[in-house]
Amino acid sequence: MTSLLPPGGAPMLVGGKLIDGGNGVFATVNPATEEVLGQAADGDAADLDAAVTAARTAFDETDWSRDHAFRAHCLRQLRTALEANLEELRSITIAEAGAPLMFTRGPQLEGPIADLEFAAGLAETYSWETDLGTAAPMGVASHRALRREPVGVVGAITPWNFPHQINFAKLGPALAAGNTLVLKPAPDTPWCAAALGAIIAEHTDIPAGVVNIVTSANHALGAMLTEDPRVDMISFTGSTQTGRAVMRGAASNLKKAFLELGGKSAAIVLDDANLAAAVGVTAFSVCVHAGQGCALTTRLLVPRAVYEQAVEIAAGTMGGITPGDPSAPGTVCGPLISARQRTRVERYLEIARGEGGRIVTGGARPADREHGFFIEPTVIADLTNTATVAREEIFGPVLVVLAHDGDDDAVRLANDSPYGLSGSVWGTDPERIRRVTDRVRTGTLSVNGGVWYSADAPFGGYKQSGIGREMGVAGFEEYLETKLISTAAG
Ligand code: NAD
């Protein structure tokens, strides 16, 4: 299906070369059909060691970190090369990640490719040095200059749900800032990362060792990367549980740990909101990519007086979305990524039933799909915020509808969560909305359907949803150190 990747075993990029994995190959599976798409290099500990060595050498022994214009050139060249291979990348993304075609035109592929320009622009225009002027601390007249420099070797560990978006959201700013990189993608989407490696190796001037991509079936490679003393920073996106392990690993040499983790975000519907719009949009969004998005608002908080009405609207919307072939132009809800993920979602549905939840629509595998890891969009009602499905991240097309008793109660419920990634507020009175957005403890909030996702907008979580911000200038600065040079004046 692809000329970028040999189906017998897509190689990985280490030290500027496309190489086979020390552990042979492993299969990558189409989640919509359960068929093996092909093979990917199965990297082992020695491959990871070679990748870190190459990244270390490229950082320590070349001008990469100081040549801002060259880095901007390389990032633009990468963007052009990705665009030249757009249709192949699209078919890999649909087949391997189960990403519906329509979203490859936005955040699953074309958006993140275009966003590389933001990173390239920062490499060119960022103020690397700030003059703090002359002062005489402790009586010594001194001229102070503040410099920003790259952190060094970045280990990037990524999940499968938005493989390109997350790989590029780390690679773009990390390279723009002058770092070198070892990327360890999720075992479920090795081809998306291998295609990036092939394009970098064959179509860009990015020097050998600056980007290394180690695909592997073995999660332990991620742990090894976090513990490697030659790595200066880990940039991780994945579950909160794995994030804890990453932080423990990073503690071994106190490397910087930047974490983008899970979420259980709330949509707050105030009693003056347009109920149909608020509930309809929220219910629809939970079906996007089969609910496999960290920032989706999977808890819907509605005024108690209109609870049944809201449940009906949600069930009407989600019941009308049929999970289907992700390559079909109209598909919103494709498959879950794997049998393991579907089992996880089904376990949560069982727990919800056991705790007294009412499955209003969905709740099962679609009857018309013999193959593929599909699950019906599901609305759960009649639970409170203490229910397991209201507290834990499910990562499937499942919406829990909860009742609130006014604005203060809605804020309390939204914040009564270990997570703080995203959320939304729906209403008509700007002052009331402001009083709510001021008090909700999350990293992003949408008001009346506003979209916060963009290259220049920082994204990330409060509480157990993460540490740090991705994207925007704030996301770029995560990849920088601060150095103060003070020269005796006069
Ligand atoms: P995961 O945590 O299972 O795996 C993520 C990555 O970590 C994979 O590459 C995996 O191989 C690696 N890994 C596993 N164990 C490791 C360890 N001990 N040390 C280091 N690396 C290890 O997550 P997933 O199932 O791939 O993705 C789904 C999760 O990602 C969800 O919780 C979702 O909310 C989260 N996510 C968060 C964001 C965000 O920006 N906040 C974005 C997308 C996904």
Question: In brief, what are we looking at here?
Answer:
The chain is of the alpha/beta class and 490 residues long. The protein is 38% helix and 21% strand. It starts with 11 loop residues before the first strand and ends with a strand.
Structure, explained:
- This protein has two domains: 12-261 and 466-486, Aldehyde Dehydrogenase, Chain A, domain 1, CATH 3.40.605; 266-453, Aldehyde Dehydrogenase, Chain A, domain 2.
- Helices cover 38% and strands 21% of the residues.
- The protein contains 16 helices and 22 strands.
- α3 (86-97) packs antiparallel against α7 and α8 runs parallel beside α9 (240-250).
- It is globular.
- 54% of the residues are buried.
- Nicotinamide-adenine-dinucleotide (NAD) is lined by residues 157-161, 166, 184-187, 219, 222-223, 226, 237-239, 242, 245-246, 249, 260-263, 294, 393, 395, 421, 461, 466.
- Nicotinamide-adenine-dinucleotide (NAD) binds next to α8 and α9.
Features:
6-stranded mixed β-sheet, binds nicotinamide-adenine-dinucleotide, 7-stranded mixed β-sheet, 2 domains, Aldehyde Dehydrogenase, Chain A, domain 1, alpha/beta, Aldehyde Dehydrogenase, Chain A, domain 2, 490 residues
Give the arrangement of secondary structure elements.
Blueprint: E1 12-14, E2 17-19, E3 25-29, E4 36-41, H1 45-61, H2 68-84, H3 86-97, H4 101-104, H5 110-125, E5 129-135, E6 142-150, E7 153-157, H6 163-176, E8 180-184, H7 190-203, E9 211-213, H8 220-227, E10 233-237, H9 240-250, E11 256-260, E12 265-269, H10 275-287, E13 297-303, H11 307-319, H12 339-354, E14 358-361, E15 378-381, H13 388-391, E16 398-404, H14 407-415, E17 419-420, E18 423-426, H15 430-439, E19 446-447, E20 462-463, E21 466-467, H16 472-477, E22 480-488
Parallel strand pairs: 7-8, 7-10, 8-9, 10-11, 12-13, 12-18, 13-16, 15-16, 18-19
Antiparallel strand pairs: 1-2, 3-4, 5-6, 6-22, 11-21, 14-15, 17-20
Bound molecules: nicotinamide-adenine-dinucleotide.
Residues 157-161, 166, 184-187, 219, 222-223, 226, 237-239, 242, 245-246, 249, 260-263, 294, 393, 395, 421, 461, 466 line the site of nicotinamide-adenine-dinucleotide.
